[in-house]
Amino acid sequence: MHVLHFITRLILGGAQENTLLTCEGQHAAGDRVTLVTGPGLGREGSLMERAEAAGFEVIELPGLVRNLRPWADAAAMRRFAGLVGELRPDLVHTHSGKAGVLGRAGAEKAGVPAIHTVHGPSFHRFQNPVSRAAFRAAERWAGPKTAHFISVADAMTDQYVAAGIAPRERFTTIRSGMHVEPFLHPPRPRETVRGELGFAPTDVVAAKVARLSDLKGQRFLVDAAALLKDRAPHLRYLLIGDGPLREGLERRIAAAGLTDRFVFTGLVPTDRIPELLHASDLVVHASLREGLPRVLPQGLIAGKPVVAFDADGAKEVCLTGETGFLIPPRDVPALAEALAALAADPALRERLGAEGRRRFTDPFRHTTMVRQIRALSADVVAGRRGAAVGTGEPPAANPLPN
């Protein structure tokens, strides 16, 4: 089977890591794989070197960028359709918002079936109304051109069905897989990494892994830290990643008198994430929009409790009182209470982290994801359409401990 994957940018990010792991897994299983992507630009880093070393075909599509550029986007769609017509793959598998719409249109023009993975919704409540309507209309336009959808979380299916993009039977939930072994067994001792970061043995470290951008919500963590400045003086914060808001965040932290509480790592290779999470005591992800953020299962597999805003698929792994605490979006006092509860109770951190590791290690193995995607891809190529496979409703949330 020849599968052509199409993604807007191959930067350091969850959707990109998912896509690359899928390509690597299909290639290792004997499929012919072609990965088409736009140029990687900006401060987010790039996975292009890893992709080019993986042994499958990688093609860069000039002129494809993240922001909307109607004339350039139309040209990119024509180039992609021509590429599909030239390569004649059995299946096109699209990822991300822009490549998802353009790629499915190009696949239809070339007469090739398409699967689309919903890593995160391209339309969401934090967009301005015009942008949200435009992205939703684009997804509705691309919906009939899609043989089947893969959702990384049941929440993605619910949102797309509610928006009228496609019926539920054309969606399958497949968790975004990863190499779990480094999260189970970190490559370097925890004490060594903590010492390099400047943390004392008595510090309780809350890690956040995300691009430093508005929707990722680092500002809410800073505001919660300000509320806890005197109440939890041993609580420290590790911000892993880079992005356009770094300077502004540093000013916000300094204005709150918290400079000594925060450590910025900047951009780090993905293979450092496991040791950084093991060096921490809990994981916080105050993001306003996600599919299912990979750092939540990563933290849980590493044995750390998680705190997250109730955005999209977070509730499917962040289970209040069982694996962490799920907080209403933008609720800084509730975020501070959850952090304080975990900072004060090592036994609670141990119990929640152990349950998360037990529950979510196997579902998030990359081999599980690749096996499921290959089976679904074979069904689509053969003209079969399976029923939706959901993971079910998460358990009811319990209140924060006193």
From TrEMBL:
<dbReference type="Pfam" id="PF13579">
    <property type="entry name" value="Glyco_trans_4_4"/>
</dbReference>
<keyword id="KW-0328">Glycosyltransferase</keyword>
<dbReference type="InterPro" id="IPR050194">
    <property type="entry name" value="Glycosyltransferase_grp1"/>
</dbReference>
<dbReference type="GO" id="GO:0016758">
    <property type="term" value="F:hexosyltransferase activity"/>
</dbReference>
<dbReference type="InterPro" id="IPR028098">
    <property type="entry name" value="Glyco_trans_4-like_N"/>
</dbReference>
<protein>
    <submittedName>
        <fullName>Glycosyltransferase EpsD</fullName>
        <ecNumber>2.4.-.-</ecNumber>
    </submittedName>
</protein>
<dbReference type="InterPro" id="IPR001296">
    <property type="entry name" value="Glyco_trans_1"/>
</dbReference>
<feature type="domain" description="Glycosyl transferase family 1">
    <location>
        <begin position="190"/>
        <end position="359"/>
    </location>
</feature>
<feature type="domain" description="Glycosyltransferase subfamily 4-like N-terminal">
    <location>
        <begin position="13"/>
        <end position="175"/>
    </location>
</feature>
<dbReference type="Pfam" id="PF00534">
    <property type="entry name" value="Glycos_transf_1"/>
</dbReference>
<keyword id="KW-0808">Transferase</keyword>
